[in-house]
Every structure is written in C-alpha cells, then in structure tokens.
C-alpha cells in the first residue's frame, strides 16, 4: 500500500498499472458470480477458436482483417471460424470488428485531441470520411458532434 503514496520516478505509470489490475480483478470477480451475465465476447475468450480471434481483433483493430486472415491465424477454416465466432460472440467477426473499431473511435474522440483522420487510421478506417459514415450510421451523430457533446 505504500506504493500508492510514494513520490518516485515512474510513479504515474505504476499507479496506472495498479488501477488496471484493480479494474480487471473487479470485472473478473463480477463476471464469475453465478447470476452475472458477462458479455458474449468475454465468454468467447476462453474458446480455443473464437478466443484467439477476439484477441487479434481487439489487439490490432487497425489491421485490414478478413475472415480468411483470422482463420489462418487461428488455424481453422473460414467457415469454421465464422460459425464458431458467431455462435459464441453473437455476431460475425467483421460485424464485431466494426463495433469494436467504432467504440474505440468514440473513446478516442472523447479522450484525445487527435484529428478525426488520425483516429480513423488508428482504428482501421482509411479516411475520416469512411469513419464518419460508419460512425453516423451506428451512433446517429457525426464524430465531431460526438466529440463536442
């Protein structure tokens, strides 16, 4: 506990990591309760096929993923991956990726001053226009309106 009140080089990084660990531990405990209803993607993480695919999409959303590329990385056929992923996550891999990219973009619009074009590239869209089109379709407002709201 003395680590929390320490004033030493790197203290901010240490506290950030401690907070990350605390949040992860709390979520795991919450999701492990018998009456809990964790999100489908969380449950899918323990699956030997869908789990690695979810991790790949979450860890590198800007990569130009295809079902074929995910299948190759997970060592199964495209059909097997699509079937298993959809059954466990509740939506096809590319639909999940779109939602994940847009959620990341929404967070970055709120938490950074990065341009919409920069955010678009960070989350896997080729241009600000492409991100804006998808963002408005899902969130009902433009990225700029989301940022200022």
UniProtKB/TrEMBL annotation:
A GO molecular function held by the record: sequence-specific DNA binding
> HTH araC/xylS-type domain: from which residue to which, for each copy?
51-149
State if Transcription regulation is listed as a keyword.
yes
The entry's keywords: DNA-binding, Transcription, Transcription regulation
Pfam families in the record, alphabetically?
Answer: Cupin_6, HTH_18
Please give the InterPro entries that the UniProt record associates with this protein.
AraC_lig, AraC_XylS_family_regulators, Homeodomain-like_sf, HTH_AraC, HTH_AraC-typ_CS
- The protein in question is named Transcriptional regulator, AraC family domain-containing protein
**Origin species:** Streptomyces griseoflavus Tu4000
């Amino acid at each position: 506990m003395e680590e929390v009140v320490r004033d030493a080089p790197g203290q901010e990084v240490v506290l950030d990591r401690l907070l990350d660990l605390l949040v992860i531990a709390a979520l795991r405990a919450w999701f492990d309760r018998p009456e809990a209803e964790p999100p489908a993607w969380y449950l899918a993480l323990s699956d030997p096929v869908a789990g690695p695919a979810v991790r790949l999409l979450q860890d590198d959303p800007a990569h130009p993923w295809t079902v074929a590329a995910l299948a190759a990385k997970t060592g199964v056929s495209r059909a097997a991956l699509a079937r298993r992923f959809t059954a466990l996550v509740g939506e096809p891999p590319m639909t999940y990726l779109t939602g994940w990219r847009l959620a990341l973009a929404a967070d970055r619009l709120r938490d950074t001053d990065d341009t919409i074009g920069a955010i678009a590239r960070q989350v896997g869209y080729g241009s600000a226009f492409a991100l804006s089109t998808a963002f408005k379709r899902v969130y009902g407002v433009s990225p700029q309106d989301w940022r200022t709201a």
